[in-house]
Design goal:
Layout lengths: L13 H4 L4 H17 L4 H13 L6 E6 L5 H12 L4 E7 L4 H8 L7 E4 L13 E3 L9 H13 L1
């Protein structure tokens, strides 16, 4: 039987339903990063962020928060692009999965100084306001009511 794409699926992905080990989780994210890289999946976010940063007042570092950062591939891409263009950015990633932080730290060179955290984006502890909040390939993990809540959160910031 073919899947019904007329409605959004409520079925949990393997990643959401519980991976069996850190190694399996890390490898899954690595494979997703490969696909995103080959399909230029990060390009729209990178182009948008570069345009926004160019319009921002000069002299102050910009803070970017990546919600659902996984292993941090998008943040590493932003870091590389910012470095090539002499842009001062403070990069932060947050993910609700406790394996994301160690996976991202393992995949990120220490000199990049990207701050990874394990947290729920809806938690009050994330009340500091970054200059930009980004996310890529994440909202499909949320239930419909959470997507609406997330969009409202973005709108409020």
């Amino acid at each position: 039987m073919l899947p019904d794409f007329a409605e959004r699926s409520a079925q949990a992905e393997l990643m959401d339903a519980g991976m069996t080990s850190f190694a399996c989780f890390d490898e899954s994210l690595r494979q997703i990063e490969t696909v995103n890289s080959l399909t230029l999946g990060y390009r729209p976010v990178l182009a948008w962020l570069e345009q926004q940063a160019a319009a921002a007042p000069a002299g102050l570092p910009l803070t970017v928060l990546d919600v659902g950062c996984g292993r941090g591939a998008l943040l590493r891409a932003i870091w590389k692009r910012a470095r090539r263009r002499n842009m001062d950015m403070r990069l932060q990633g947050v993910d609700i999965n406790p394996w994301s932080k160690p996976a991202a730290e393992k995949s990120t060179s220490g000199y990049m100084r990207i701050d990874y955290r394990t947290a729920d984006v809806f938690a009050p502890a994330l009340s500091q306001k970054p200059d930009f909040i980004i996310n890529s390939h994440m909202t499909h993990h949320l239930k419909e009511v959470e997507v609406v809540r997330f969009l409202r959160l973005l709108d409020d910031r």
